Every structure is written in C-alpha cells, then in structure tokens.
Amino acid sequence: MRIGWLLLAGCGLGSAQFGDRDRDGTPADGDVEVEADTDADADADTDTLTSWTGSFPLCINEIMPENLAAHADETGAYPDWIELHNPSDAGVSLAGWTISDGDPARHALGDLEVPAGGFVVLYADGFPSLGPAHLSFSLDADGEEVELYAPDGTGSVVVFGPVAGDLSAARVPDCCAGEGCWQYPFGGTPGASNVSSEATTPLIAAGSTWRYSDLGFLPGLDWFSTRFDDTGWASGPAPLGYGNDPATVLSFGADPAQRFETAWFRSTFDVVDPAGVQTLRLRVLRDDGIAVFVNEIPVYRNNLPAETGEDVLAVNPVEGADEAVWLEAVIPADVLVAGPNTVAVEVHQAAVDSDDLGFDLELLTFP
Fold first, then answer.
1. Residue 239, preceding bond cis, omega within 30 degrees?
2. Consecutive 10-residue averages of pLDDT for the chain (367 residues)
3. Same structural domain for residues 19 and 67?
4. Which domain holds residue 212?
5. Is residue 136 in some structural domain?
6. Which residues face 145 on adjacent strands?
7. So what's the pLDDT on residue 366?
8. What is the CATH number of the domain that holds 246?
9. What is the spatial distance between Cα 278 and Cα 324, in angstroms, rounded to a whole number?
C-alpha cells in the first residue's frame, strides 16, 4: 500500500482503511478504491491513498504528537494523545482491539468502550501501567503512523508528517475522509467533536478596521497600553500590509532593499459581562512574525525570538500557501474586563528586503 503525504500549513498527513493485510501493507482482500487529498498550492504530486471499502466502526479522529501544554492527563502530565471517535448509534468495546505506531508489537486495548457518537482519548506516553487509556508507545512529532486494528483484523491507519507543538491533526467534520478533511487547530479538542456546536460571538471580526503605525519606528514604549493615545494613527480595514493585494496598503519606507522591520496595530471592543465568557479563541493571519496583547497582557507570540524591539526580525519567512493560513489559539478569558478592551499587535518581517507583509485577526468568544 502506498501512503501519500498531504500538505497543509507545513504538516503532512494521509489516512487509509484496509482489510486484513500482510506486514508489507498489501490488502489481503476486499474491494479497493483510491482517493487523494492534496494541498491545492502544493508543487509536487502526491501518492495515492489506498482505502478498504468495508465497514469500520471507529476512526482515528484526532492526533497531537507533541503536547507541550495543551491538554493534561489525570496525573497532570502532558503526554501525546490519540482520539478515537465512534460515529455509530451503538457503543463499541475496545476488547480485542490493538493500536500501534507502526511497530509490529501492537498495544492491546482492553477495558475501554467508545460510546455511541462518543470519543475516547488515548495517551501515548509509554506508561501503560497508569491505566487502560495509557499506551505503551509515544508519538514522533517529526512524523510517523498510527495503526488501529479491530478484532477481525480490519484496520485504519493515519500517516502524518511534522506537526508543531500543541497543534493537533483533526478530521473536520469528525471521521471525514477526502479532500480538505484534515485541519490543524491549536490546542485540539480531545474528547469532544472537532466541530464546535456552540454559538460564537466575534469580539473582533476578520476584516475589521484597525489603527496602525507604519512609520518604521517604535510609536512609544507604552504603545500596547490601554491608556495609549492612538488617535493620531492612520486606520483601515484588514487585511493590512503590502505585496499581496491587502485591503489596506502599508508603507515600508523609501528603500525596497531596507524595509521597515515592524508595523504596529491597535483595536478596541466592549464587553458587558466578562464572567459570561468561558472560552476566548484567537485567530490570526501573519506574515511573518506576530505578538498579540490583550489589555496589556501578552497572550500570543508566533515566529518571533524571545527578545523584543522594533528592529527584531521574525525567525522564519512565511511564504506561499502559509501566508493564507489562519493560526488559532485558545487564550485565557480572564484577560477581559467590563467595558472597553484593547488589542495591540506587532508584526515583524523576517528580512528587511522581504516583498510582503500581512496581518488580520479574529477574536471569538464561546459561552
């Protein structure tokens, strides 16, 4: 069986289901169909995915191969994890089921049941003595495979490439297959649907108007403060930047070979009852590095070194399809206050001769 690598936001992932097979991956029987899922912007052709068309009651629904601080287990540790989903209307006992990371010595799943329409989270920590949800292997964030086998020998495999820390690889909607199925949310949704059923309220919608400073020098040491006076700044709708047809074009200075390293942005919104907000989700488009403050509190930082300053460069350039990828993070809801709230953002270039810069942001609440 040939497994193709699916490319999205720097991650690669493929999936297949099959009948009883030899260890070389050859399906032993059953009808076979071919499906492919590729990034539309990928330059290289991908291999095909071989899928067994028989019935399989569970799916490997979500994987987090590098859990830095996104989801703790019952011991307070942060192990890698795998989520199984049962989309049927009958519970599935895991007695007789096995799971592995490609090692022929599969881990036997025992005293667990995936309820009808429900989920089970398995911790890939190498400590099976901790309980039936703890596996005898861990995952490799640089990429490997996860194999799930039913007692009758049928199985399902997910092959993934490098996945960044605290990002999960998730089927959206749950147990989907085919083009565009896999997404890479920050934090994941272990033990719950990958599609939120809760109504969201945008505090700041994508495409909102932002005040900005594109003059090439720090607008003030307290530029991110709630008390900072930004009335003299220019304003315009997002996305803001230059080089990729933004809604608002920023200045990069007089010299294309020595462009400004940093641009600064500010916006405000009102909250009536902060206690009524349980979850706060941040989504950003950034090219290249970004730091976000809410009410003066740093809540998100991506692709920037530890040091700060107006002339600090982003760690890596954001190029091609990655420029259009929304990054997501769940941030503490207790940063909100009753009344006016301030979001302040700095976006840094990766090189002074970079020909583009971009920014947009969305802030959502979940009750």
1. yes
2. 28 45 30 25 27 64 91 90 92 94 92 91 96 95 93 90 89 85 86 72 93 96 97 97 95 96 97 88 91 95 89 92 81 93 97 96 83
3. yes
4. 201-366
5. yes
6. 159
7. 67
8. 2.60.120.260
9. 28
Residue 133 lies in a domain: yes
Cβ atoms of residues 146 and 156 within 8 Å: no
Closest alpha carbon to 148 in 24, 17, 329, 322: 17
Closest listed residue to residue 59, CA positions, set 183, 160, 174, 180: 174
Number of domains in the chain: 2
The tokens of 275 are what? Answer: 């206690």
Question: Phi-psi bin for 247: left (phi > 0), alpha (psi -120 to 50), beta?
Answer: alpha
Q: Is residue 171 part of a domain?
A: yes
Query: DSSP state, 321?
Result: G
Q: What is the DSSP letter of 128?
A: G
How buried is 189 (Cβ within 10 angstroms: 0-12 exposed, 13-18 middle, 19+ buried)?
Answer: buried
- Do 160 and 225 lie in one domain? The reply is no
Q: CA 213, 357, 364, 297: dihedral to nearest 10 degrees?
A: -50
In a domain, 125, yes or no: yes
Strand pairing report for 169-171 and 182-183: antiparallel
Neighbour order of strands in the sheet with 144-149:
7-8, 11-18, 155-160, 144-149, 97-100, 107-109
Tokens of 7: 């490319």
Of 127, 151, 183, the domain-final residue: 183
pLDDT given for residue 18 in this prediction: 40
Are 72 and 117 in the same domain?
yes
Say yes or no: 178 and 236 in one domain: no
**CA gap 170, 184 in Å, rounded:** 6
Does 169 share its domain with 248?
A: no
Name residue, tokens 């899928």. Answer: 51
pLDDT value at residue 44: 26
CA distance 221 to 289: 19
